[in-house]
Amino acid sequence: MYAYHYPAPALRPQRALPTLRTDRLTLRPVRVADLDAIHGYLSREDVCRYLLHEPLSRDEVKAKLVACEQRTTLEQQGDFLRLAVVPDEVGAVVGDVVLDTRSVENATVELGWVFSPDVAGRGYATEAAVALRDYAFETLDAHRIVAHLHPDNTASSRLCERLGMRHEALHHADMWLKGHWEDSSVYAILRHEWAASSAAE
Questions:
Q1: pLDDT in tens, 20-30
Q2: Rounded Cα–Cα distance for residues 164 and 197 (Å)
Q3: Which of 34, 61, 89, 133 has the fewest beta carbons closer than 10 A?
Protein backbone atom coordinates (compact mmCIF):
# COMPACT_ATOMS: atom_id res chain seq x y z
CA MET A 1 0.00 0.00 0.00
CA TYR A 2 1.29 3.44 -0.92
CA ALA A 3 1.21 6.41 1.46
CA TYR A 4 1.28 9.88 -0.07
CA HIS A 5 2.58 12.38 2.48
CA TYR A 6 1.23 15.73 1.44
CA PRO A 7 -1.66 17.87 2.71
CA ALA A 8 -5.15 16.43 2.99
CA PRO A 9 -7.45 17.29 0.10
CA ALA A 10 -9.68 20.33 0.16
CA LEU A 11 -11.80 20.74 -2.96
CA ARG A 12 -12.28 24.48 -3.36
CA PRO A 13 -15.96 25.41 -3.85
CA GLN A 14 -16.92 27.55 -6.85
CA ARG A 15 -20.01 29.75 -6.69
CA ALA A 16 -19.79 30.67 -10.37
CA LEU A 17 -19.19 28.50 -13.41
CA PRO A 18 -16.15 29.39 -15.51
CA THR A 19 -15.56 30.32 -19.10
CA LEU A 20 -12.15 29.03 -20.20
CA ARG A 21 -9.97 30.15 -23.10
CA THR A 22 -7.28 28.22 -24.96
CA ASP A 23 -5.27 29.14 -28.03
CA ARG A 24 -8.12 28.18 -30.35
CA LEU A 25 -11.17 27.53 -28.20
CA THR A 26 -13.76 29.09 -25.94
CA LEU A 27 -15.21 26.72 -23.34
CA ARG A 28 -18.34 28.15 -21.71
CA PRO A 29 -21.38 26.70 -19.91
CA VAL A 30 -23.85 25.03 -22.25
CA ARG A 31 -27.22 26.69 -22.72
CA VAL A 32 -30.56 25.86 -24.28
CA ALA A 33 -29.63 28.02 -27.26
CA ASP A 34 -27.05 25.32 -28.12
CA LEU A 35 -29.83 22.78 -28.74
CA ASP A 36 -29.43 22.45 -32.51
CA ALA A 37 -25.67 21.96 -32.37
CA ILE A 38 -25.61 19.54 -29.43
CA HIS A 39 -28.57 17.52 -30.66
CA GLY A 40 -26.73 17.32 -33.98
CA TYR A 41 -24.11 15.00 -32.48
CA LEU A 42 -25.98 13.42 -29.55
CA SER A 43 -28.57 12.08 -31.99
CA ARG A 44 -25.94 10.11 -33.94
CA GLU A 45 -25.46 6.37 -33.57
CA ASP A 46 -21.70 6.60 -34.07
CA VAL A 47 -21.34 9.24 -31.35
CA CYS A 48 -23.47 7.37 -28.80
CA ARG A 49 -21.80 4.02 -29.39
CA TYR A 50 -19.61 4.44 -26.28
CA LEU A 51 -21.89 6.73 -24.27
CA LEU A 52 -24.23 5.63 -21.49
CA HIS A 53 -27.31 6.34 -23.58
CA GLU A 54 -28.77 5.66 -26.99
CA PRO A 55 -29.09 8.53 -29.51
CA LEU A 56 -31.21 11.28 -27.95
CA SER A 57 -34.27 13.02 -29.31
CA ARG A 58 -34.42 16.80 -29.54
CA ASP A 59 -36.66 16.97 -26.46
CA GLU A 60 -34.28 14.77 -24.47
CA VAL A 61 -31.32 16.98 -25.32
CA LYS A 62 -33.32 20.09 -24.45
CA ALA A 63 -34.19 18.63 -21.04
CA LYS A 64 -30.50 18.00 -20.35
CA LEU A 65 -29.59 21.55 -21.34
CA VAL A 66 -32.34 23.02 -19.16
CA ALA A 67 -30.98 21.01 -16.22
CA CYS A 68 -27.45 22.27 -16.94
CA GLU A 69 -28.62 25.89 -17.00
CA GLN A 70 -30.10 25.43 -13.54
CA ARG A 71 -26.72 24.43 -12.09
CA THR A 72 -24.62 27.47 -11.28
CA THR A 73 -22.12 26.25 -8.66
CA LEU A 74 -19.50 23.58 -7.98
CA GLU A 75 -19.77 23.19 -4.22
CA GLN A 76 -21.26 19.80 -3.32
CA GLN A 77 -20.81 16.18 -4.27
CA GLY A 78 -22.81 15.55 -7.44
CA ASP A 79 -22.44 19.09 -8.78
CA PHE A 80 -21.17 19.10 -12.36
CA LEU A 81 -19.90 21.44 -15.02
CA ARG A 82 -20.68 21.02 -18.70
CA LEU A 83 -18.87 23.34 -21.08
CA ALA A 84 -19.64 23.84 -24.74
CA VAL A 85 -16.54 23.85 -26.95
CA VAL A 86 -16.54 26.63 -29.56
CA PRO A 87 -13.49 26.84 -31.88
CA ASP A 88 -12.61 30.33 -33.09
CA GLU A 89 -12.33 29.14 -36.68
CA VAL A 90 -15.77 27.46 -36.60
CA GLY A 91 -17.77 29.84 -34.42
CA ALA A 92 -20.22 27.12 -33.36
CA VAL A 93 -20.45 24.36 -30.74
CA VAL A 94 -18.61 21.23 -31.91
CA GLY A 95 -18.62 19.24 -28.67
CA ASP A 96 -18.71 19.52 -24.91
CA VAL A 97 -16.60 18.56 -21.92
CA VAL A 98 -17.89 17.60 -18.49
CA LEU A 99 -16.46 17.77 -14.99
CA ASP A 100 -18.29 15.83 -12.26
CA THR A 101 -17.66 16.30 -8.54
CA ARG A 102 -17.29 12.65 -7.51
CA SER A 103 -16.06 13.14 -3.94
CA VAL A 104 -15.70 16.43 -2.08
CA GLU A 105 -14.13 14.61 0.87
CA ASN A 106 -11.44 13.03 -1.31
CA ALA A 107 -11.13 15.95 -3.74
CA THR A 108 -11.87 13.69 -6.70
CA VAL A 109 -13.47 14.78 -9.97
CA GLU A 110 -14.30 12.93 -13.18
CA LEU A 111 -13.71 14.22 -16.70
CA GLY A 112 -15.74 13.34 -19.77
CA TRP A 113 -16.06 14.57 -23.35
CA VAL A 114 -18.09 14.14 -26.51
CA PHE A 115 -17.44 15.71 -29.90
CA SER A 116 -18.95 15.74 -33.34
CA PRO A 117 -17.10 13.37 -35.69
CA ASP A 118 -17.24 16.19 -38.25
CA VAL A 119 -14.30 17.86 -36.47
CA ALA A 120 -12.26 14.73 -35.75
CA GLY A 121 -8.51 15.05 -36.18
CA ARG A 122 -8.26 18.77 -35.41
CA GLY A 123 -7.10 18.37 -31.82
CA TYR A 124 -10.09 20.15 -30.29
CA ALA A 125 -10.88 17.36 -27.82
CA THR A 126 -7.32 17.27 -26.48
CA GLU A 127 -7.09 21.06 -26.20
CA ALA A 128 -10.44 21.28 -24.39
CA ALA A 129 -9.73 18.35 -22.06
CA VAL A 130 -6.32 19.77 -21.12
CA ALA A 131 -7.97 23.08 -20.22
CA LEU A 132 -10.54 21.34 -18.01
CA ARG A 133 -7.88 19.14 -16.39
CA ASP A 134 -5.82 22.20 -15.53
CA TYR A 135 -8.90 24.02 -14.20
CA ALA A 136 -9.63 21.07 -11.91
CA PHE A 137 -6.13 21.07 -10.45
CA GLU A 138 -5.41 24.81 -10.44
CA THR A 139 -8.79 26.25 -9.45
CA LEU A 140 -10.62 23.42 -7.67
CA ASP A 141 -7.47 22.08 -5.97
CA ALA A 142 -8.43 18.56 -7.03
CA HIS A 143 -6.31 15.74 -5.67
CA ARG A 144 -7.36 13.14 -8.24
CA ILE A 145 -8.98 13.18 -11.68
CA VAL A 146 -10.55 10.05 -13.15
CA ALA A 147 -12.11 9.06 -16.45
CA HIS A 148 -14.32 6.02 -17.09
CA LEU A 149 -14.67 4.72 -20.63
CA HIS A 150 -15.43 1.68 -22.70
CA PRO A 151 -12.29 -0.43 -23.30
CA ASP A 152 -12.92 -0.40 -27.05
CA ASN A 153 -12.98 3.39 -27.17
CA THR A 154 -9.40 3.73 -28.37
CA ALA A 155 -9.76 7.41 -29.27
CA SER A 156 -10.67 8.29 -25.68
CA SER A 157 -7.98 5.97 -24.33
CA ARG A 158 -5.37 7.84 -26.36
CA LEU A 159 -6.79 11.14 -25.15
CA CYS A 160 -6.46 9.99 -21.53
CA GLU A 161 -2.82 9.15 -22.20
CA ARG A 162 -2.23 12.59 -23.72
CA LEU A 163 -3.65 14.05 -20.50
CA GLY A 164 -1.00 12.15 -18.54
CA MET A 165 -3.53 9.73 -17.08
CA ARG A 166 -2.61 6.17 -16.11
CA HIS A 167 -4.69 3.13 -16.98
CA GLU A 168 -5.60 1.94 -13.48
CA ALA A 169 -8.20 -0.77 -13.97
CA LEU A 170 -10.26 -2.87 -16.33
CA HIS A 171 -13.55 -3.90 -14.77
CA HIS A 172 -15.26 -6.86 -16.38
CA ALA A 173 -19.04 -6.84 -16.84
CA ASP A 174 -19.53 -4.16 -14.20
CA MET A 175 -22.21 -2.12 -15.99
CA TRP A 176 -25.62 -3.23 -17.25
CA LEU A 177 -25.96 -0.94 -20.24
CA LYS A 178 -28.18 -0.95 -23.32
CA GLY A 179 -29.49 -4.42 -22.57
CA HIS A 180 -26.22 -6.23 -21.82
CA TRP A 181 -23.20 -6.25 -19.53
CA GLU A 182 -20.32 -3.95 -20.49
CA ASP A 183 -16.70 -3.74 -19.33
CA SER A 184 -15.21 -0.41 -18.28
CA SER A 185 -11.71 1.08 -18.13
CA VAL A 186 -10.53 3.52 -15.47
CA TYR A 187 -7.86 6.14 -16.10
CA ALA A 188 -6.58 8.58 -13.49
CA ILE A 189 -4.00 11.22 -12.68
CA LEU A 190 -2.98 12.58 -9.27
CA ARG A 191 -2.18 16.20 -8.54
CA HIS A 192 1.53 15.57 -7.89
CA GLU A 193 1.83 13.65 -11.18
CA TRP A 194 0.28 16.57 -13.07
CA ALA A 195 2.53 19.06 -11.28
CA ALA A 196 5.64 17.05 -12.10
CA SER A 197 4.74 16.70 -15.79
CA SER A 198 3.85 20.42 -16.03
CA ALA A 199 7.18 21.41 -14.49
CA ALA A 200 9.02 19.21 -16.99
CA GLU A 201 7.39 20.84 -20.03
A1: 999 999 999 99
A2: 8
A3: 89
